[in-house]
Amino acid sequence: MRRLFFTVSVLALLVSFSALGLAQEPTPSPEKQPILKPDKDAKNFTSDQVAESTIFIYGSRNLLAKIRRNGVEVGRICKPTCEVGKVEEATYQRRFVRGESMDKDKVRLDQKMPTLEYSLIFGSGQLWGLINGSSFTPRQDATDTFLAQHRHSLDTLLRYKENGSTLAPLRKDKQKGLDLYILDVIDKDKQLTRYFISVKTLHVLWLEYDDATPASSGPLKYSRKFMDYRYAQGTLVPYRTVLLEDGKQIQETRVANVTYGVRLDDALFKSPEA
Q1: Does residue 274 lie in a domain region?
Q2: Is residue 42 part of a domain?
Q3: How many separate domains does the chain show?
Q4: CATH number of the domain encompassing residue 207
Q5: Which end of the chain is more exposed for a tag (fewer CB within 10 A), N or C?
Q6: For the chain (length 274 residues), average pLDDT per consecutive 10?
Q7: SS3 for 10?
Q8: Are residues 179 and 22 in contact, defined by beta-carbon separation less than 8 angstroms?
Q9: Which domain does 225 fall in, by range?
Q10: What is the Cα–Cα distance from 27 to 127, expressed in whole angstroms?
């Protein structure tokens, strides 16, 4: 255990919190900068070491499990962009209770558009919708999008051990002038999420995954970029994310506020017909 902590600490020492063009990254508070010592083998990191060090930078496994046990996130979702020329915009409230693993999480996403309000609720591994107090079966594309964003997320990496996932051998690359660790996380269902992690900051800059839809002739390639990183209750959170499908932006999400440790009634995640 002491050796693992030392290795994690070594990798964290190399982190430089300078701003990057792809993601706005804040200067961490003093308590986020432990006094560490370099190691002669600092360039020969493994997948486990990079994964554990990334978790450490995002707040540490214990703090993430304690602080992000439940919470409320409020913001807006835009298709394709929140800037001038947007096609569709909705405000949202996302409430969640963290389970032992991600498939046991409870998530409720309430969305409000000018002409429509509805909720998507995930619990016990199932997804259903709620509108005007009555449950409904969401459209397939809405179901696919919701489940994909849950299965291929930052938490897929931050909670990889809890989820029983495995890590592929680590690779390094340089793209757009950025030195990157490329880390593949493979879950119990053999679904792969690829993370592109800044060597300088250990922030996840973007992730990629393939997903097939009923309307597509084959798997589509998705990528999600994480930007505007800020600290929320001692944990690192991207306040802006952009989702792309085969290189074309299809959605942008901007967080207005996030609060962890909020007590949530279990009835929020139950179907009225249950």
Answers
A1: no
A2: yes
A3: 1
A4: 2.50.20.10
A5: N
A6: 42 38 38 37 80 96 95 93 75 96 95 92 90 89 88 97 97 94 96 97 97 70 97 97 95 96 92 66
A7: helix
A8: no
A9: 2-269
A10: 38
Q: Give the type of residue at 144.
A: D
Residue 64 structure tokens: 């993430």
Residue 16, pLDDT score: 36
Residue 59 lies in a domain: yes
Q: What is the DSSP string of the chain?
A: -HHHHHHHHHHHHT------SSS--PPPPGGG-------TTTT---HHHHHHHHHHHHT-HHHHHHHTTEEEEEEEEEES-SSTT-SEEEEEEEEEE--SSGGG-EEEEEEEETTEEEEEEEETTEEEEEETTEEEPPPHHHHHHHHHHHHSSHHHHHTTTTTT-EEPPPEEEEETTEEEEEEEEE-TT--EEEEEEETTT--EEEEEEEE--TTSSSPEEEEEEEEEEEEETTEEEEEEEEEEETTEEEEEEEEEEEEES----GGGGS-TT-
